[in-house]
Amino acid sequence: MGFDHPAGSRDSGKLLLTSIGAVYIVAGIAWVIGQIIHGEPLVNLLIVPLLVGIPGLVVLLGTHRLPRTDVDSDFYSVIGKWCLGSIGVSIVVLIVYHVLPTDSLSNPSRSILILSALSSVAGFGIGIHDARAKTRAREVTQRNRELQQVRAQLERSNERLEQFAYAASHDLEEPLRMVTSYLSLLEDRYGDELDEEGEEFIEFAVDGADRMKSMIDALLEYSRVETRGEPMEPVDLADVLATVTKNLEIQIAESDATIELEELPRVMGDRGQLQHVFQNLLSNALEYSEDEPPRVTVSASRDDSMWIVSVQDNGIGIPRESQEDIFEVFERLHTREEHAGTGIGLALCKRVVERHGGDIWVESEPGEGSTFSVSLPTVGPQREIEPRREGY
Ligand code: ADP
């Protein structure tokens, strides 16, 4: 992740660290020279320059390697400050120790040199830790900012799409009304003069216009899921499914279907929109049935903070490769002659469920039936299952 660094802060941090390392190397060498001038044998002198020079070398090499670590160069000065701080503390400790009446150092300058050199390495280590933590914190902040920007962009583009879909479908309604009314005028006024083929053409045109109206209505509804939604509130799904089965009474009776509603929970949601979702799922379960009468079961199970509500049928099933596509707008697996429909029902369900913070998916084998599952947020800790077991 890249940031814009003020070059000054990076360079001054590096310069400070290099200077600290260099000072101890030079001090180690200077110590040896000083002692030789004072006539000390060389072998006695090696220990001090090693204890001073090696820490200096460690700080110097560590600083040289810093650009290859994940520490942000803006925080090199933090490492420098930790080094200086550690050196300062060690010097103060030695001075205090030295001035105490009972204890004093035999060679204060040597002790200060060795201890402060070792402390500079300790400060360097702690500084890297601190700088790394600061680098992480900055990356997280930056990432959050980027995520917020992407989210805002997505929301804006979503809004524009909604407005476009709304405007397009709304504006199409008027010319479509004109087509439909002139077609019926044509039929009323010149119906007697048309031959069989002419009548059939008008019938096709009326049918096309009707289908277009259904699609426009569905698109309008799709574009209004966010804007026309009601606030979320506790919704008793047992009630919702009772209304849905009532609305589908005729379709259920005609297909001789059995609908079994198991215990259903209360969820947080928009009652009207949830009714739409389950009406769509149930109506599909009845529509895409095989030769035998449809058997549909609606059940629920709990998964952490969500309820999974499933609608299972014994219908024609859905091939694996189409199980995601069917949730897209106008995606259909059958011709109109085989099954009527606009192809927007499941896309609408998906949008509604997503507005509820949930998900929708299908498990199915062709010829074995399908199970559509919807995850919806729970209401809270109170008793959410309303016992109900009814057949329709
Ligand atoms: P529509 O039913 O209007 O065509 P949907 O979006 O509701 O549109 O469904 C999309 C497609 O998914 C349908 O055309 C159908 O092929 C398939 N489908 C939906 N529900 C089922 C089901 N229960 N069993 C089998 N196929 C289904």
Automatic annotation (TrEMBL):
Protein name: histidine kinase
Pfam families: HATPase_c, HisKA, HisKA_4TM
Principal EC category: transferase
SUPFAM superfamilies membership: ATPase domain of HSP90 chaperone/DNA topoisomerase II/histidine kinase, Homodimeric domain of signal transducing histidine kinase
Stored InterPro entries: HATPase_C_sf, HATPase_dom, His_kinase_dom, HisK_dim/P_dom, HisK_dim/P_sf, HisKA_4TM, Sensor_kinase/Photoreceptor, Sig_transdc_His_kin-like_C
Cross-referenced PROSITE patterns: HIS_KIN
Stretches with biased composition (Basic and acidic residues): 383-392
Protein EC: 2.7.13.3
Annotated region described as Disordered, given as residue ranges: 362-392
Chemical reaction(s) catalysed: ATP + protein L-histidine = ADP + protein N-phospho-L-histidine
Domain Histidine kinase: 167-380
Signal sequence region: none
Gene Ontology MF terms: phosphorelay sensor kinase activity
Coiled-coil residue spans: 137-167
